[in-house]
Amino acid sequence: MSPKPDVVVLGAGVIGLSIALELDAAGFRVAVVGKDLPGDSNAVDYASPWAGCLWFSYDTDTTKPVYKRDVRTFQRLQEMVHTRPDLVQWYPILSVSGSPMSKDDHPWADDVKVLTAKDGLPGGFAYGTECQTLMMNAPQYMLYLGEQVRARGIPMVKKRLNSVDEAYSVFGKVDLVVNASGLGAQALVGAADPAVYSARGVTVLARAPKVTRAGQVMDVLKATFAGGEQPPPTYILPRPGTDGHVVLGGTYDAENYSPLPSTEIVEGILQRTFALDSNLAPGGTWRDIEVLGVNVGLRPSRKNGQRVELEHRRIGDGATAATPTASLADRGRSVGVIHAYGFGGVGFISSLGAAEDVVALAKEFKTGAPARL
Ligand SMILES: Cc1cc2nc3c(=O)[nH]c(=O)nc-3n(C[C@H](O)[C@H](O)[C@H](O)COP(=O)(O)OP(=O)(O)OC[C@H]3O[C@@H](n4cnc5c(N)ncnc54)[C@H](O)[C@@H]3O)c2cc1C
């Protein structure tokens, strides 16, 4: 039997598994519990396998923790291009916009070409940029993370919890839990966060071997991630390690939990992405795109953005008579929870940097010395 863990990670998405591996590498004994585990679930509220998936920081304030998290992730993913090119690969990306763009829009890139209409931008756009960035194969990357967790002997159990309190006793008594429950954070007793909401994403998986460059309509995406009502985002993301597969997007449907997209939505995605890159069906129309499937995932979003923070609490906090916890005997025990949720549409982009921040907070919990994130 494995020894009792120091930390339990609640959640086995890209955030929970990246954190579990980082804690293990830092010398913590760790275990994972999640209602969905890699490879055994197609639930729409298990966001990670449905991601596009590109690395691209939309933040331009280089002093913000989120930007730093993103860039640390970018640096570490670049190493994987050499070891796992089937999971992470460089691609050029064309970003187009209705308003002027500059190198400052992508401070993390060192090869930005600034473009205007005279460079022949698609879709009637007047401005654009091109630079290199990383594309990931999200479903395969999730299987890879699951294999890494198992290979390191980290216990991982499939279980749905009603309360954060239950996580302190799944593997024997522990004092520290990481709440990486994604959309689950909306209703997790003891840690329920009313700012968490779903932003549904519909994508089309297509085969288009002539597409060699990713593409996105930049101003819509930026505004979408900042929140609020926007026209649907448009993007084309080649998927590494496949026979010319591309992910075509998309939608950002706030508070929409339906797994069934309309034909109108799917056709709109095909039309908008074809206008961005006619190599999706060379010589044809949007109707000639070779569609392999339509996917739906719920982005675990949060009104005030990502939450990566240590909270000191007592077991039983936040529980009511109507929502009792499973660990009544433990009620009142002082424990810690590190929240790591609210990643919305950027979980892969921030994942490894967020995992490093969680390790720093776990050390703070253990030693009392404040972490510097
Ligand atoms: C269409 C689409 C395109 C996207 N494209 C990109 C992209 O290009 N780049 C990018 O970075 N991101 C992208 N994203 C966003 C990305 O998928 C998410 O940000 C990321 O997956 C969030 O990871 P997570 O681990 O927080 O949540 P999840 O992957 O949802 O994992 C949550 C975990 O918590 C568990 N859990 C929840 N509640 C409970 C409970 N009560 N008890 C036990 N376990 C529980 C779940 O079972 C699961 O294991 C996209 C998302 C969608 C839908």
Automatic annotation (TrEMBL):
Keywords: FAD, Flavoprotein, Oxidoreductase. GO terms for cellular component: cytoplasm. InterPro entries: D-amino_acid_oxidase_CS, DAO, FAD-dep_OxRdtase. Pfam families: DAO. One of its GO terms (biological process) is D-amino acid catabolic process. Residues 6-360 form the FAD dependent oxidoreductase domain. One of its GO terms (molecular function) is D-amino-acid oxidase activity. Its cofactor is FAD. Belongs to the DAMOX/DASOX family. This is FAD dependent oxidoreductase domain-containing protein. It comes from Cutaneotrichosporon cavernicola.
